[in-house]
Write a structure and sequence with these properties.
- With 101 residues, the chain is an all-alpha fold.
- It has two domains: 1-33; 48-101.
- The protein is built from three helices and no strands.
- The protein is elongated and about 70 Å long.
- 0% of the residues are buried.
């Protein structure tokens, strides 16, 4: 068996090392923050253009998904038996895809 006192001493040594590393990281972060140049408040026009394209695409996709969901809700209200049959068929198809045979 291992010596319990040796294990405790090793654990205490590891805790001291971890504390020392944490304090080193805090000091390096503090010095990096004080030496870092201030960032401009207004991003460049090019940056705005790059970020706006993906945002526009995501918003457009969200609108399209909302439209599909509304159409599905209306179809479900009009034809509940058909919606139930479609859900059952989809469940079987997904089950076949994920079966382990």
């Amino acid at each position: 068996m291992t010596n319990p006192n040796g294990d405790v001493e090793e654990l205490q040594e590891l805790q001291r090392e971890a504390q020392a590393r944490r304090s080193e990281r805090k000091q390096s972060r503090a010095s990096a923050k004080s030496t870092a140049p201030p960032q401009s408040a207004a991003p460049d026009a090019e940056d705005q253009e790059q970020t706006s394209e993906p945002e526009k695409a995501v918003k457009e996709l969200a609108v399209q998904i909302e439209g599909v969901v509304k159409d599905l809700e209306q179809a479900t209200v009009k034809h509940p038996a058909l919606a139930l049959a479609a859900a059952f068929g989809l469940g079987i198809a997904v089950g076949k895809l994920f079966s382990r045979r």
